[in-house]
Specification:
The complex is a heterodimer of chains A (261) and B (342). Chain A has 261 residues and is α/β, with parallel strands linked by helices. Chain A has two domains: 6-90 and 177-256, 3-Layer(aba) Sandwich (Rossmann fold); 94-161, no CATH class. Chain A is 33% helix and 23% strand. Chain A has helices at 53-60, 83-88, 106-110, 121-126, 131-145, 162-176, 192-207, 219-225, 248-256; strands at residues 15-24, 27-37, 42-46, 68-73, 76-78, 91-94, 180-184, 212-215, 228-233, 236-241. Chain A has a six-stranded mixed sheet with strand order 6-7-8-3-9-10, sandwiched between helices. The N and C termini of chain A lie close together (9 Å). Chain B is mainly α and 342 residues long. Chain B has one domain (35-49, 61-341): ABC transporter involved in vitamin B12 uptake, BtuC. Chain B has 13 helices and two strands. In chain B, strands 1-2 form a two-stranded antiparallel ribbon. The longest helix of chain B has 27 residues, at 233-259. Classes of the chains: A alpha/beta (261), B mainly alpha (342). The A-B interface holds A 63, 82-84, 87, 93, 95, 97-104, 108, 112-115, 117, 126-129, 131, 152, 155-156, 158-160, 172 and B 12, 31, 206, 209-212, 214-215, 217-218, 221-222, 224-232, 288-289, 340-342. The structure holds adenosine-5'-triphosphate (ATP) and magnesium ion.
């Protein structure tokens, strides 16, 4: 199996997995999938619909647990029993389904599950939220990321467009990912300008040294952004390509099985 | 109705080419403030009933209405927290009756100190919530089915324990404390009403200001999304059912105080009344939407209709009809405001 560009050969992967298997009833979504993400890189994951991309990252983010196989973070074996476990380890994820609470406002969604509490007993015992501070910091954060489409931080998410909801999910992951950020089709519902904005955010995160996993069907942007490309096919990693040495036609041919890796 | 006149500007202004219609604006205001509708209904219906019968706003009548609303208001409060998680509790009444019989039985039959007997009843109520919560979280039984089952179980346990008796505490017994009346001029406020209002404040605070409350709304809104952001949804749901159980226990005490005795012979419509109050109060049966203040308005509306129609000399039948129509209207409004988009 191809293990990526030689530059990474000496580095230890931040996040890796070996021989992951996951079946949903009779459907085998993962059939021994391997995965490696190196420090500071943008790794694109591409593959046909149903190739097991989302199933793979759900195992890596604690959203589901693999039937077998191992996951390593910084070389140490980890078992994520819940999404919270992965979050505690610094892995932040934008799911294909977005995972936002529609009735809550943007600020509440950004801080959902990690609400800022008031200081003192009020905060520690009663979990009293510091709503003003959450709103202020949410606004600052959204501005810093340059997400202009989110204007009013107190707007309920259900009143937002699909693209704006995606922006909320991306902003949340960008805000709290400290080790790895995983994005499952973060631009699927976005217009040209908004997609460019998400691409800019991804680069911004990478420039801060965060490794990123980007699942996308958008080949041109994959080839523009990615340092390496993981091709998923039929529940396995079929190949790892480099945008420097491979063309989009190569990638598509391997993805669809027209050519062996 | 001039609902749009109360627009405080907090509803998001609809953007785009289309000018907002009045309907649009009402929809937005109700979406941002779902308890506004019930408040308007409450005020208008109260005024109409007073115009029909001048005794409606008399101190005596207001006192009685508040006394009547205390128990159902408490049950509806517990029910509301459960409905916010997209659940439902069909066993509220049964849990309350069981807790009530245990409280009175321990104090009057088993001779426990009264405070310990009350605590015992509260623990039993809490356990009923725990059972419902475990059914929903551990055994993945849909709340509707799980509480339908426990409705039968709790009812039977209550009847078995009571053994057909009506237990009547003697005057001055602490069991009757919630029934004490505080005279304010010709108006008499029942202690249990204050208990109810305090609990509304506490639960309202917890839902609106604490992380726990946010998580209640998030789980009711979209449980999978809540799980993915790292909320322990099972633990949260369990806490909700246990809290509701505890509130039903307090309702049991208030019930003993108000009526003056404990028997299993209590209105069988308590379950539905508590759901009715929440729904009329703008709490969405789909979960994630509504506030307890709305439920309080809802409980008051039901009471105002029952009392007002009775004062107007209308048959019971029409009270039921009115209540049914209110529920349908409330659900229709909920469906409508859930479609809101900017
Ligand atoms: N929760 C589930 N229950 C049942 N089957 C599932 C579930 N999740 C995924 N699958 C199945 O597993 C297979 C892989 O799905 P997955 O979502 O991982 O694909 P994907 O590569 O992300 O596809 P897409 O590009 O469409 O997002 C598919 O056949 C899918 O139907
Ligand atoms: Mg997918």
């Amino acid at each position: 199996m191809n293990d990526g560009s030689p530059a990474n050969a000496r580095k230890e992967p931040v996040l890796s997995a070996t021989a992951l298997r996951k079946a949903y009833g009779r459907v085998e979504a993962l059939r021994g999938a391997d995965f490696e993400l190196f420090p500071g890189e943008i790794l694109a994951v591409i593959g046909d619909n149903g190739a097991g991309k989302s199933s793979l990252i759900k195992c890596l983010s604690g959203a589901s647990s693999p039937d077998s196989g191992e996951i390593y973070l910084d070389g140490k074996k980890v078992t994520f029993r819940s999404p919270q476990d992965a979050k505690d380890a610094g892995i932040e994820t934008v799911y294909q389904t977005l995972a936002v609470a529609p009735a809550l406002d943007i600020a509440s969604n950004l801080y959902l599950g990690r609400e800022i509490r008031k200081s003192g007993l009020l905060g520690s015992v009663l979990r009293h939220m510091d709503i003003a501070r959450m709103r202020r910091e949410a606004r600052e954060h959204v501005n810093r990321l340059g997400i202009q489409t989110l204007q009013d931080i107190t707007q309920p998410v259900e009143t937002l467009s699909g693209g704006q909801r995606q922006a909320v999910a991306v902003a949340r992951a960008a805000a709290f990912g400290s080790k790895v950020v995983i994005l499952d089709e973060p631009t699927a519902a976005l217009g040209v300008r908004e997609s460019a904005q998400v691409a800019a955010i991804i680069k911004q995160l990478r420039d801060h040294g965060l490794p990123i996993v980007l699942i996308s069907h958008d080949m041109p942007s994959v080839f523009e952004l990615a340092d390496r490309i993981h091709v998923q096919r039929l529940g396995r990693r079929a190949a790892v390509l480099s945008p420097q040495t491979h063309t989009m036609e190569d990638a598509v041919a391997i993805m669809t099985g027209a050519r062996a890796a | 109705m001039t609902v749009e006149a109360t627009d405080t500007g907090s509803g998001p202004p609809p953007e785009g080419a289309k000018a907002p219609t009045i309907g649009n604006r009402v929809q937005h205001v109700l979406h941002a403030h779902p308890s506004l509708g019930p408040l308007v209904v409450l005020v208008i219906s109260a005024i109409i009933f007073d115009l029909i019968n001048g005794r409606f706003f008399s101190a005596a009548n207001l006192s009685i209405m508040l006394q009547e609303v205390a128990v159902i208001g408490l049950l509806a409060l517990g029910q509301t927290v459960i409905i916010l998680t997209a659940g439902i509790d069909l066993a509220v009444g049964a849990a309350m009756i069981l807790a009530q019989m245990v409280m009175a039985g321990l104090a009057l039959t088993s001779g426990w100190p009264v405070w310990l007997a009350i605590a015992g009843g509260l623990v039993v109520a809490l356990v009923t919530g725990l059972v419902d919560g475990l059914l929903v979280t551990r055994f993945k039984v849909p709340p509707f089915i799980g509480t339908l089952g426990t409705l039968g179980v709790f009812t039977a346990l209550g009847l078995l324990y009571a053994n057909g008796q009506t237990l009547t505490p003697s005057a001055g017994n602490f069991l009757l404390w919630p029934g004490n009346l505080i005279k304010i001029g010709s108006f008499s406020l029942m202690t249990g009403v204050i208990v109810m209002l305090v609990l509304y404040l506490i639960v309202g605070y917890a839902l609106g200001r604490t992380a726990w409350g946010k998580h209640v709304y998030a789980v009711g809104d979209d449980p999978e999304a809540a799980r993915l952001v790292g909320i322990n949804t099972a633990r949260l749901l369990l806490s909700v059912y246990v809290l509701a159980g505890l509130i039903y226990g307090i309702a049991a005490w208030v019930q003993i105080g108000r009526v003056g005795d404990a028997s299993t012979n209590i209105s069988s419509t308590l379950n539905l009344d508590s759901i009715t109050a929440a729904v009329i109060g703008g709490v969405s049966l789909f979960g994630g939407r509504g506030i307890v203040l709305g439920t309080l308005f809802g409980a008051l509306i039901v009471q105002v209709f029952q009392n007002g129609l009775a004062l107007a000399g209308v048959q019971d039948l029409y009270q039921q009809l009115a209540e049914g129509l209110l529920v349908i209207a409330a659900v229709a409004v909920d469906q409508w405001i859930r479609k809101v988009r900017t």
